[in-house]
Design brief:
About 5% of the residues lie in helices and about 40% in strands. The chain is mainly β. Strands 3-2-9-10 form a four-stranded mixed beta sheet, with no helix packed on it. A four-stranded antiparallel beta sheet has the order 5-4-6-7. A two-stranded parallel ribbon has the order 1-8.
């Protein structure tokens, strides 16, 4: 017989964090605006707006444990405004302006969604 909760840490609460690094400048992306949305079917519900600090992180969890729900979410990184503020030569339109990352959270765990950003590309992954 297999134990009922094998592989699940039932004492852990889920939460969401991020870290944004400016790979072109080689530093954290301070002052970058981020919006969090919960996606339910065709509905996109805005949860909160945050801005990265000097370390490229938000001062609080993007989605704290007491608000965590399993489901589909979208982080929207306002890269164009950040690039403008850092003096990156402007384009019209900017190659990267708004960077949406849609992802699922399927268990109550720490989800960390970093963004590695440059004016012409970005990368993300599920971090720790």
């Amino acid at each position: 017989m297999i134990p009922e909760n094998i592989g699940w840490n039932t004492d852990m609460s889920g939460y969401l964090t991020t870290h944004v690094l400016d790979t072109a400048r080689g530093c954290p992306a301070a002052g970058l605006a981020i919006d969090l949305y919960r996606i339910t079917g065709e509905t996109r519900e805005h949860i909160r707006s945050l801005t990265t600090n000097a370390d490229g992180r938000t001062d609080s969890q993007i989605l704290p444990a007491d608000e965590f729900e399993i489901g589909t979410y979208e982080l929207v990184f306002h890269a164009g405004a950040y690039l403008d503020a850092t003096g990156t030569p402007p384009e019209s339109p900017r190659f990267l302006d708004v960077v949406p990352i849609r992802f699922g959270m399927s268990e109550a765990a720490h989800y960390h969604v970093p963004l590695l950003l440059s004016p012409f590309g970005y990368s993300t992954y599920r971090g720790s």
